[in-house]
Write a structure and sequence with these properties.
It is built from 2 helices and 11 strands, in the order βββαββββββββα. The strands form 2 sheets. Strands 1, 2, 3, 4, 5, 6, 9, 10 and 11 form a 9-stranded mixed sheet that branches. A two-stranded antiparallel ribbon has the order 7-8. It has 162 residues and is mainly β.
Length: 162
């Protein structure tokens, strides 16, 4: 790769990230799709918050790392928006966590058929690296379990359509 075509070293994304089993799970989707709600349910099951609303990605050698933005006010670190309650402190990680999964959440009210039963393996390219991609509905009761299974299984062990 020439210097002109090198991918950027960092990016700021609108999303929420949690750490599960030493991997960051990045939740992306339109406003109101359930990013914070799903993160809260994952945290309730043992995950730890990395960042809510804005997430900073950094390329470090052969890895993408996920962390709370450097610019976030100290009063908001380790806190998540809980709709109907307020901005609340939760179990959180300090520093960056290797990004393991990119999760696109479908829009609230979208057809359940939007989520394929047996999807083909997909990846999202971020900062020049391919990250395993899942498309899920944040509000299905089983979604936290689905994500914990995906993280535990690893990207190469999930069987879908070829």
């Amino acid at each position: 790769m020439t210097p002109e075509s090198d991918p950027p070293q960092s990016a700021m994304l609108h999303g929420t990230a949690v750490a599960i089993g030493g991997q960051a799970v990045l939740l992306i989707g339109p406003s109101g799709c359930g990013k914070s709600d799903l993160a809260l349910r994952l945290i309730d099951g043992g995950a730890r918050l990395i960042a809510d609303d804005r997430v900073e990605l950094t390329r470090v050698e052969h890895q993408i790392r996920c962390q709370a933005p450097q610019s976030i006010p100290a009063a908001l670190k380790g806190r998540i928006e809980v709709r109907g309650v307020g901005i609340m402190p939760v179990a959180a990680v300090e520093g960056a966590v290797p990004l393991g999964w990119y999760v696109e959440l479908i829009r609230l009210g979208a057809s359940p058929d939007t989520v394929e039963r047996l999807p083909a393996a997909e990846h999202k390219t971020l900062l020049g690296h391919d990250i395993p991609l899942l498309r899920l509905s944040a509000f299905e009761a089983s979604t936290p379990a689905k994500l914990r299974l995906a993280v535990a299984s690893g990207a190469g062990l999930i069987m879908g359509r070829e």
